[in-house]
Design brief:
Helix content is 40%, strand content 26%. The chain is an alpha/beta fold.
Length: 345
Amino acid sequence: MNIEKLLIDKINKKGIIDVAEFIQISQFENDGYYLTNNPIGKKNDFITAPEISQMFGEIFAIFLINYWDRKIKTKFNLVELGPGRGTLLKDILRTSYINKQFLSAARLTLIEKNKNLMKLQQDILSNDKIEWSEEFLISDKKIPSIIYSNEFFDCFPVRQFYKKEKWYEKFIKYDDSEQKFSFVSQKVNNHKILKTLENFNDAKVAEISEQRKKYFNLICKFLKKHKGVFITIDYGYINPPKYLSLQTIYNHKNTHLFENIGCQDITAHVNFEELICLANEHNLNIDLFCNQKDFLISNGIQERLKALQKNKNEQVIRNLDFDYKRLVDNSQMGETFKVLVISCL
């Protein structure tokens, strides 16, 4: 069924739906955006850090290898959530040849729902030792796991709230006569939600994702029971921003939520304070929390940049500088993107 028709039918049955349900249907139902599209790349809707430069994947790989060498050094599961085009894993595998013990000890699993991306990953990686799963499923639970994700949790649907003396939630309705979607607000009366919203009283706006929380809880429980580490990189915050961060992107341009329905990227900033609190509730170790700039620099990206620029012409040097700045400058990805590492080993 057409995504827009599916949304209209749902609203006609219920009267209104919350923003999270609108996103869920647009992105994940039937032929939804994340199940069928290939959104990543210069010719598509957006570009991620691994696609910007090999330096990102190489530095991330060095972090993984050093972590494994210090704290695991046995056979382990290497698991990526939402691997996109497979670029990050490809860089990790290439860089891993600096420590062949790491490579030989790894059992590879990719968690991917999108059939088209799965086929692309299979073509790009061409590795018959990789297992694919549509759900969070790791077959060998007797060995520890290194699980990681890049721009994964920002894709989970969020409900949107704002405060004007009282808290209100944004909902979506559909006008059959005008054939258009629009927002409508309702006062929040649910005591559990109001308790959660107390954390956002200063910001006066909030985006809450129960599905993100549920998925992160699943990872925490897995680590606690089967041992391992989880590294996630995403754009987000510790202190709630005073604006709603939900954004829609189509062909690298900002759009409106009601445009290109089922055909555009919809994301929201990740609440890292919530993720850290959840990890603490499971008594997991918080090994690291920092911004992407500090993570990349502390793991050697400046040295890698110099090595790649050595004996190159001016154009290559400028291109490498440009890519480096995209990854680490505070005005670009350096500050907005955060790195969280939690573990139980």
